[in-house]
Amino acid sequence: MRTAGRGRDEPRRNLTKSSLAALVAAHVPPAWRQPHRLILVGASIAAVIALIIGTTSTGPSHRAPGTTVFQVGDRVVLRFVHSTGSVRMTPGPGGQVSVAEHRNGITSAIHTHYQQQGDVITVTVSTETGLFTATWVDFTVAVPQDFSTTVATSAGTLTAAGLTGSFVLTDTNGSIWANHVDGAIAMRTASGSINTAKVNGQVSASTDNGTITTISTRLRGHSLMQAQNGTINFHGSLSPGCYAVFKNTNGAIGVTLPSASSVLVHARTPFGSINTQFSSVHVVSSSAGRVAVGRVGRDAPAHLRLETAHGSIDLNR
Question: Tens digits of per-residue pLDDT, 125-136?
Answer without folding.
Answer: 998 876 556 789
